[in-house]
Amino acid sequence: MLLLVDSRSTHSFVNATFAARIGAATTNISPISVRVANGQRLNCSGVSELGVYDAVLGVDWLAQHSPMQCDWQLKTMQFEDEGKTVHLTGVRSDGQPALGAMDAATLWQMHDSNEIWGATLLEIQLTEPSPDSGQPIPPTIQKILTEFSEIFEEPTQLPPHRQYDHAITLEPGAAPVNCRPYRYSPLQKDEIERHVSEMLKTRVITHNMSPFGAPVLLVKKKDDTWRFCVDYRRLNQVTIKNRFPLPVIDELLDELAGATLFSKIDLRASYHQIRMREGDEEKTTFKTHLGHYQFRVMPFGVTNGPPTFQCVINSVFSGPNRKFIITFLDDILVFSPSL
């Protein structure tokens, strides 16, 4: 007997050919709808054509004969049935796997005798990977990349002051917010020093002495590196909120009706492309074991960051907005019905 033990099958089934061969008595029952591996649904009464297998043993059979001992390495099952120990041995393949060839007549004969249930034709070609195997950049695209190469370079200076510099306006009577720093391990202190050093080099922060002060948070990312954050929650509590509206996602999706081509623009360190309003930099002060620092650009984590950024984006793309561009904060989507 060739049995298929299938823990994903709720019921057990016997091959009609096998049942007739051993003279098994069958009883007619109401057919049940069975969904098979390819997703197709078949009406079955427990006896059906199972191809190469004599029977399929499902969860109902496994539950009936539990407990049992299974050795998946040796492909054996052992259980007790009516006081007797039953051993089942799986089909084992000895030696190294090998591929052989046969003619069509032999294949068809094996199919007719039910020795083959299914077959797949594979064509394998081994190729050495090439570092230059990527598709070449079309000349028109390369021309654009060359013409606007400065856009893709790392920034070497601060963005200019604009009309929409980020402001932090405190509620009337609010005192400067000053919080104690958190406790950090030596490893975390090394990470803080590294981030502070990088931000000093790019001039997005500067040393200061201020009555304000927020603690630093290090958040572990999926790749086991650290994300440098500042805990501005206390500052946000006493900040007057900017009620500038953010786009409604469903309405943005409505704008894409009929579009078939899409290009997404991803901004590098988006908040850091907006300057802090002069006089408000000290409110962004954060504390480290090295001292106090303040941001010269809009930091992540401040309560009015999203409204400020959306206001700037709306101003920059006021012309093409909704015609072939939609924006949501730093996510910019260019769409078109055709080339």
Describe the structure.
This is Reverse transcriptase domain-containing protein. InterPro entries: DNA/RNA_pol_sf (IPR043502), Rev_trsase/Diguanyl_cyclase (IPR043128), RNA-dir_DNA_polymerase (IPR053134), RT_dom (IPR000477). This protein has 2 domains: 3-89, Acid Proteases (Cathepsin D, subunit A, domain 1), CATH 2.40.70; 158-336, HIV Type 1 Reverse Transcriptase, Chain A, domain 1. The chain is built from 8 helices and 17 strands. The protein has helices at residues 16-21, 59-64, 104-112, 139-147, 186-201, 233-237, 249-254, 305-316; strands at 3-5, 13-15, 32-35, 41-44, 47-48, 55-57, 68-71, 76-81, 84-89, 205-207, 216-220, 226-230, 261-266, 286-288, 291-295, 325-328, 331-336. It has a 4-stranded mixed beta sheet with strand order 1-6-2-5. The chain has a 3-stranded antiparallel beta sheet with strand order 7-8-9, with no helix packed on it. The mean pLDDT is 83.
Helix and strand arrangement:
Layout: E1 3-5, E2 13-15, H1 16-21, E3 32-35, E4 41-44, E5 47-48, E6 55-57, H2 59-64, E7 68-71, E8 76-81, E9 84-89, H3 104-112, H4 139-147, H5 186-201, E10 205-207, E11 216-220, E12 226-230, H6 233-237, H7 249-254, E13 261-266, E14 286-288, E15 291-295, H8 305-316, E16 325-328, E17 331-336
Parallel strand pairs: 1-6, 2-5
Antiparallel strand pairs: 2-6, 3-4, 7-8, 8-9, 10-15, 11-12, 13-17, 14-15, 16-17
